[in-house]
Structures are given as C-alpha cells and as structure tokens.
Description:
Elements: E1 6-10, H1 15-27, E2 31-38, H2 46-54, E3 62-66, H3 68-80, H4 98-112, E4 116-118, H5 127-138, E5 143-145, H6 147-150, H7 156-165, E6 181-184, E7 189-192, E8 222-229, E9 232-236, E10 239-240, H8 243-256, E11 261-267, E12 273-279, H9 281-297, H10 300-318, H11 325-337, E13 343-350, E14 353-360, H12 368-371, H13 383-406, E15 414-416, E16 420-423
Parallel strand pairs: 1-2, 1-4, 2-3, 4-5
Antiparallel strand pairs: 6-7, 7-12, 8-9, 8-13, 9-10, 11-12, 13-14, 15-16
Helix pairs in contact: 3-8, 4-5, 8-9, 10-11
Amino acid sequence: MSNPPKVVLAYSGGLDTSIILKWLQTERGAEVVTFTADLGQGEELGPARDKAILLGIRPENIFIEDLRETFVRDFVFPMFRANTLYEGQYLLGTSIARPLIAQRQIEIARQVGATAVAHGATGKGNDQVRFELGYYALEPDIEVIAPWREWEFKSRESLLRFAELHQIPIAKDKRGEAPFSVDANLLHSSSEGKVLEDVSEPAPEFVHGRTVSPEHAPDTPTVITIDFARGDPTAIDGIPLSPAALLTRLNGLGHDNGIGRLDLVENRFVGMKSRGVYETPGGTILLAARRGMESITLDRGAAHLKDELMPRYASIIYNGFWFSPEREMLQAAIDQSQANVTGRVTLKLYKGMASVIGRESPFSLYDKELVTFEEGSAYDQRDAAGFIKLNALRLRVAAKRDQRLAGNAPDLPVSDEVGGDVSVLDPL
C-alpha cells in the first residue's frame, strides 16, 4: 500500500483553513503538514499549534515560524526602495507578504518530502495568483491544491456543517457572517467585503483597528527623526533598531497620530474592481521620509527615472511576479540608485499627516550657493537666456509654421536677441 500524498498547507489556525486541513485529510487522503507564519499580524499563534494537534497533525508536521525580521528586511524594505505605490495609493501590504509565505512553503515541502502545497485563497481574489506564481517559480513541478476552487461547498452553512461533522471547533463569532474580512501583517491591515461593499458609503469607524481617527489624534505634533543607510531606515530618534523593530515603532507612532488610512477601489489582477480599507501607519511615515531623503541625495535624472519605473514595479508585485526576471532586473536598478541615499530626515506627525520638515546627508546634492537669492559667483543668471532660447526653438519653429499656414504671418527668420540669427525658416 502506497503512502498518502504529503501536502504543506498555509495554515492560519482559523476556521476556514481548519476546514481545508480536514478536507485534505478526508477528501484527498493527504498527510498534512501545516505552516503558520508570524508576519506581525498581531495574533497569538499558539492556538494554531493546538488546533492542528486537535485535528490529528503530528507535532513534527507543524511548522510555526517568526518571520517578521525576514519579512521586513528582505521583502518590505526592498519594495520601499522604489517608493512603491499601486495605482498611485496602495502600499501593497498584502501583496508583499505572499511571496515569503510561498517561499517558505516550498522550502518546507522540500524538507519533509511533500509533493504538493495548498492555500486558502478564494477563486475570486489576487492571492491565489500570488501564491501559485510563487510556488511554480520556485518549484515548477509542484502540485498546487486550491480547495476553494475545487470543493463542493456552496454556502457558509455547508462549511459549518462539515466543521461540526468533523468536530472542528467553531467560535461563537464564526456562526454568523463576519461584517468584513481582515488580513494583517506588520506592514498593514486590509479590510474587505460585507459592510464595505457599497462603495458610496463611508467605511464604519469600527473597521479601523490600527489607527485612531485623525480627528481624535493629539493636538500637539510629534516630531521624530529617521536615519537611512543606502536607502533603508536604520534608526528612529538616533536609536538603532532592527528592521522589524523599526517598523513596529513607526506603526505605534502612526497609530497614535491617525496616519496611514486609505479607502481604495482598486483593479484586481483577475479583472474585477474591489474596495479595500487599508491601514499602513508605519509604511506611510516611511514613504514620506524616504522621499525626503531622496530629494537631496538623488540626481534629477535618476529620481525621475525611478518614478517612471515605479508603476511597472508596483504592478509586478501586485500581480504576484516577485520571483520574476523583470522584478529582479528592476530591483537591481532600484538598489543601485540607493548607494548614496544616506542621512537623516526630520518629520512632523500630526492628525493624519506625516510631513518632512528637515533633511541632511553627507551625500547631499543640495547646494545653497546655487539657489540663494543673494548674488554669488556659483550661478550666472545671464546663462539662462541662451538655455531658454535653445529649449524654445522647436516651439517657435512650430508656432511660425502654424501662423504661416493660417496666412497671418510673413516668412521671417527666427532670431536670437542675444546672439543674432540662429536659423532662417524657408517657406513650406
């Protein structure tokens, strides 16, 4: 008799993934290995272990790992080096967590000899794409099981009946439909569905769990400094912090000052529009600080090119292509741009806003002598005349043509008042 197939399940310990676990055992005859990642979602993960054991999982097949430092250092910070925003607003808090989960699932599958991986994403969302693109990029022949696309359950009631049949604990608050769903990690929280599905209605205040409302934030501003080294934050108020500790500290400051709320209708990769209410308190502060740091350390051409590349980079991550060649190519260019993004930014946090009020760097390109209104030798204002005339030349040529074709201007040379004739326009 052959051994049952071994499957590594991304397991939260919640009702839905517990039902998936039992379904894999009963309907697929699988030996299930559970993987639960602590990405800073703010939940106690001990119950996930207890529930997995209750459902028959052997202790050696239960993996619960604290990945907060890895998450921030190797995924969040590289993404932030591009000042990444999807559709101009979304800081990609859910998107950036999925490749790490997929990566660890594949690593565990190799470790335990599993031939398949499973996730709890539905067939309507982006996460199924993100998980599975990650799996296939890392292990091209892995079997992927997506129960929400495969099983016969048609309603919440049928799921609950299955749970009761197999003695899966059901909390009282899981008996009815939740008012909205939440996904969270150290970077953000995402709320969707139910009370948020009418996009004409404001999100109820109870949806927000990571920030006080800006109206109720303190009346006195909070002033902080953030230090950067090669594009990544390293310290707050001069105190060095690890990546996860730094983001945790920024989250606390953002929470207290009502910073980081976003109500967004976005375009999902699978084709539909969806509404998400996001809270990214620390990330919102970090984005403002990073742009402040880059404003004095990046050359104009590099800064503008980064801004042009960013939407493409954001879409790559949003759509689940973290492990793709194009993301790696863009990452190399982005990381190269950060060589001199080092220094200190001072910010004021006040009632929902994170404002840069000071910046300094040993690599600063800002030259006070060039921009001062006082007369100096660094810049000769008379040089601007020729610069402007050269840049205006094509505009003047086009304007002369249009005037001539309209029949209201003679064919005249385009002359430069400073240096004489620079060209003669022949009749068209």
